[in-house]
Each structure stands twice: as C-alpha cells, then as structure tokens.
Amino acid sequence: MKDFPVFTTENGVASLILKEVPYRGEAYIHLRDSQDPKALLEECVSFCAACGAEKIYASGSEILEEYPPHTAIFEMRGIPNVEEALIESLFPVTEATVSRWRALYNEAMSAVDNAGTLERRDEARLLEGGAYFVHHRGELLGIGYLREDCIEAIAAAFPGAGKRVLHSLASVCPGVPLRLEVAGTNERAIALYEKVGFLKVKELSRWYRVR
Fold this sequence. Notes:
Strand content: 35-45%
Number of strands: 11
Order of helices and strands: EEHEHEEEHHEEEHEHE
Shape: elongated
Distance between the termini: 19 Å
C-alpha cells in the first residue's frame, strides 16, 4: 500500500505511513503543519481507517497528549565493547538467501512496536551489503544489518542469542561509534544495547494511540 509523505488538506499537512496496513493492520500519522491540528488529525484518521487500518498511531503535536501513549522512538549511540569470545561467523546475504533473511526479519519484528515490514522490493537494498546471518558451528544464532555507522536491525533466532549476534555484528567495524533506533517499549533490546556501551542520546518521536 502506498505511503503519503505529504498528505494535504484544508486543515494542514501530515505524513501518512500506510505500508503496514496489509501486514499489521497499522497506520501511522505524523502531523506536520496545521492551524487546526485536531481537525487535521480527524481527517487523517478517517482516511487511514478507510484504507483498512485497525490500529492508528500519531505523533507531532501536543494535542496528542490526551490520547493513550503508544511508544517513544529513541536514538542510541556508542562504541560497543566487543567481547572476542562472543564473536561468531558472519555470512553476508546473497541472492539465494536474501528472501530467507527477509522472512526471518519479518517474523522477529512482528511483535516489535513501530518496526517496519520488509517487502520483496527491499531485497535489492539488502544485497548492497551489511545484512548478515550469524552462525555458531553451523547453528543459526540470528541476523543483523549494519549500514555504514547505523545498526538497522538485530534479531535472535532463539532467546539468549541476541548478545552474541550484537557482538558479532559490531565486530565488523571495531572501535567505530555506532548508532541505532529503538522503541521505548522494547525494553529487552534497550537493556542489551546499554550493557555493551550504547546510551540514549535523544528522543526522535513520541507516538500515541488515536484509534
């Protein structure tokens, strides 16, 4: 489903993210510029609902504070304290394995707030480099995606493997400051990132449940 980076009405301008409607039944509204944000929000909610969204979240205006909170998105930065003993084998995705990587990512992120579903068209970007399978003696521990200085994704194949996946991914560029984004409700991930040296540096957005 098509997103609307610029959704304009007589009440103002917003951005609508509708990509997740077919997969998670979710739509996201970012209010950008309006003299009447309540009226703009009502229009956006109606449009998202008409597109099939069952859950609708919004950010970008103080008027949203009257709604139930959903989650905040934080940026974290740090130089990971990589432990050599936890570094495992990394295998870059290939044309033969990229669909499997994407399926594992979508399965792992299905329960993570504000995580985006990867579609087949995203595979070309993954093949450009930075997406890995992490193995230990032939056993899949998880997957990771490191693009330049940003950790785009980490997912463990089973409980307890996340730390080894993170250390292995960070070993690609040891000693380099890295950044990532994480939902405030993803407490286990935040605890893991803080344990290896990441700190929250700023809140990027705060989302509220408007339907």
